[in-house]
Write a structure and sequence with these properties.
Helix 1 links the parallel strand 1 and strand 2. The protein starts with 6 loop residues before the first strand and ends with a helix. The strands form 5 sheets. A 7-stranded mixed beta sheet has the order 6-5-15-16-17-14-18, sandwiched between helices. Strands 8-2-1-12-21-20 form a 6-stranded mixed beta sheet. The protein has a 3-stranded antiparallel beta sheet with strand order 3-7-4. It has 12 helices and 22 strands. Helix 1 packs parallel to helix 4, helix 1 packs parallel to helix 8 and helix 10 crosses helix 11. The protein is an alpha+beta fold. The protein has a single domain, classed as FAD/NAD(P)-binding domain, CATH 3.50.50.60.
């Protein structure tokens, strides 16, 4: 392999760092720029599915992910009004298909940190924090970017550029690529508590509670020095202001409404954010690619966005490695957009939209019909398997492999 310019990466979230690691492990030079001074540890995505765990195994990360996360093979869907269990799904049914028949609740900032620590072992990998990519220019044989940071304005040249710089991606905007879709009118809130909500929902740490007026989900993460933490995700009313939602009295009232108890909740973090369903019109333009949130965003129900972003990283870095080593023609890179974009629409956008509709469906006839279908699916082994194959993204990987075969 001839000496070449580094592959440039804009954005140091978990997908950015995993992208860099996947390239560095192939011996490819890589230079990552992250605008913030450190990894963002705000509570965000936490679910890592079976198909993703297999990919992380290939990057030497899976054992640490399992060790530092919380393994859960089940998830349950409840009806809040009747307080009855609608259905329980078990990833254990996939034990003959994957070595990881479960989900792991491991917060995304931990994944980013794991990848970063491994990157430090590769002399061909450079990581810069407090360095924001602000513009780019493409040429026939390379890409140039402008970076703003403590050292002022600098320019860097690379063989390719990968935009991992989030939903507001500067790279995507610089390319003039449309970000099609919509924003949900209501905002979502995550409240994180040290309280053991497993006492309320015993036997399963991933619970989805449907309700046309006030749905919520409850799940456990491995947490920090305080021990395991529980997160409660819910939607807010459109008319509610930040102060009405975020003050301690309001969050206490919200949690007590969902899960009443005699003592106050110990809330260690509050997060309120807009939720989008959008997909870039293209994941590639010339020598520049989009991955993760730069290419697609979705609501968090089902824990699919981060997982699909990691899948982006693995496919893209595999294709780039083949081209740079001379194992494939450069036009093989067209496969990245050709396959990743429709897969996202089918397995992430459609699934997360359906998940949200199930949670807040207002039509009682439609709700009853959906609940009956869920029960039939959970009770039928073949339907159960098909459901969790899709929910774990194994089905999307198999579909991509079938095209490549």
């Amino acid at each position: 392999m001839t000496t070449q310019r580094p592959i440039l990466i804009a954005g140091g979230g978990p997908v950015g760092f995993i992208t860099a690691l996947a390239l560095a492990r192939q011996g490819l030079p890589v230079h990552l720029f992250e605008a913030e001074p450190r990894i963002n540890d705000m509570p965000r995505a936490a679910t890592t599915h079976a198909a993703t765990l297999e990919m992380l195994a290939g990057l030497g990360m899976v054992d640490e992910v399992i060790e530092r996360g919380y393994v859960e093979p089940l998830f349950r869907i409840w009806d809040r009004q009747s307080k009855k269990l609608i259905a329980e799904f078990d990833f254990g049914i996939l034990k003959d298909e994957t070595p990881y028949p479960f989900a792991v609740q491991c917060e995304q900032h931990k994944l980013a940190g794991m990848a970063l620590r491994r990157l430090r072992d590769y002399p061909n990998a450079t990581v810069e924090f407090s360095a924001r990519v602000t513009s780019l220019e493409q040429f026939s044989d390379h890409v140039e970017i402008t970076v703003e940071g403590a050292e002022g304005t600098r320019k860097f040249a690379g063989s390719y550029l990968i935009g991992n710089d989030g939903g507001r991606s500067t790279v995507r905007k610089a390319l003039g690529i449309e970000f099609s879709g919509y924003t949900h009118p209501e905002r979502f809130m995550i409240l994180t508590t040290t309280e053991d909500l497993g006492l309320i929902y015993p036997g399963c740490t991933r619970n989805y509670v449907t309700d046309p007026d006030a749905w919520f989900s409850v799940f456990k993460v491995s947490g920090d020095e305080r021990g395991p933490l529980w997160r409660v995700l819910s939607a807010t009313k459109i008319e509610q202001t930040d102060d009405e939602l975020m003050n301690p009295d309001a969050t206490e009232k919200r949690l007590q409404a969902f899960m009443p108890k005699d003592t106050p909740y110990d809330v260690v973090h509050r997060n309120l954010y807009n939720v989008h369903q959008r997909v870039a019109a293209s994941f590639r333009k010339g020598r520049v690619f989009l991955a993760g949130d730069s290419a697609h965003v979705n609501n968090p129900l089902g824990g699919l966005g981060l997982n699909f972003g990691i899948h982006d990283a693995v496919e893209l870095t595999t294709l780039l490695g083949q081209v740079i080593r001379g194992e494939a023609r450069e036009d093989v890179l067209n496969e990245y957009d050709l396959h990743r974009r429709p897969l996202n629409i089918e397995f992430v956008q459609q699934q997360t939209i359906a998940n949200k509709k199930r949670m807040d469906e207002t039509d009682p006839v439609a709700r009853q019909k959906e609940q009956e279908q869920l029960r039939r699916t959970a009770d039928d082994p073949a339907l159960h398997r098909a459901y969790v194959r899709k929910a774990s993204l194994i089905e999307s990987v198999k579909k991509r492999e079938a095209v490549a075969a």
